[in-house]
Design a protein that fits this description.
EC 2.1.1.-; SAM-dependent_MTases_sf; about 35% helix; about 250 residues; Diverse_substrate_MTase; alpha/beta
Length: about 250
């Protein structure tokens, strides 16, 4: 499938996406934001996992922009404190210099980097933060790595791969982007999940969502077998990581 087609595959699994995908580790949001007294744009917000995490952290002014109607419907229903808007990273429906932070969770790899960076710079106030996040089951644990193999998570050409987001990772913005030097961190936690839910979580990623139904069912069956063989408990204590990168909007364009 083409990259745009894969990027639009998530709406078909919006309910499962919201129920099964990991929210960011709370410490990651504290590291990204200078305070809770800020206006935050959750860009490519999906079903609102980050928007709700921001609200739980005390951020009162959250704008969530999401292009997929099905994903945005779940967001609006379950994140009543956020203003949910239709829009894309390449055409953000907000005025110039209107937000203090722009966060994009498991989404930046789907954006056009030149157009998205220009739009983010436009809506950010000087000194504002661009924060990019990826939350995922941590492949440093061997059975998780085996599940990722079933999911084809780190195949060459997979835009959704998190294989490169480890401690010290870097994001390259387009030349001339009005941002300072970036920095990154990785935060970890463990969460209990039903074994069937861990297996089903693989089906919320584009590499599995875009398979034929019988192939998706086989991935889920194989994942359940891995969990039974390698972990042997139900529920399962799943190691999750949130990798984050941030850069500050300079006071003037370069």
């Amino acid at each position: 499938m083409t990259r745009p087609e894969r990027s639009r595959s998530f709406g078909a699994a919006a309910e499962d996406y919201d129920r099964l995908r990991p929210a960011p580790v709370p410490a990651a949001l504290r590291w990204l934001l200078p305070s809770s007294e800020v206006t935050v744009l959750d860009l490519g917000a999906g079903t609102g996992l980050v928007s709700r995490s921001l609200a739980a952290a005390g951020v009162a002014d959250v704008v969530a922009v999401e292009p997929d109607d099905a994903m945005r419907a779940v967001l609006a229903a379950r994140s009543p404190g956020a203003r949910a808007l239709a829009g894309t990273a390449e055409d953000i429906p907000l005025p110039d210099a209107s937000v203090d932070a722009v966060l994009a969770s498991s989404a930046w790899h789907w954006f056009d980097p030149d157009r998205a960076t220009a739009e983010v710079a436009r809506v950010l106030r000087p000194g504002g933060v661009l924060g990019l996040l990826w939350s995922f089951a941590d492949p440093a644990t061997d059975w998780v790595a085996e599940l990722r193999h079933l999911q084809r998570a780190d195949d060459a050409g997979n835009e959704d791969s998190t294989s490169g987001v480890r401690a010290g990772f870097a994001i390259d913005l387009p030349d001339g982007a009005p941002f300072g030097a970036g920095s990154s961190e990785v935060f970890r936690r463990r969460t209990w999940m039903a074994a069937d839910d861990v297996a089903a979580m693989l089906g919320t990623y584009s590499t599995v969502l875009t398979l034929r139904p019988e192939e998706r069912a086989e991935v889920r069956r194989a994942a359940r077998e891995v969990i039974a063989r390698r972990v042997g408990t139900d529920p399962v204590r799943v190691p999750f990581a949130t990798a984050v990168w941030r850069a500050t909007r300079l006071a003037s364009d370069i």
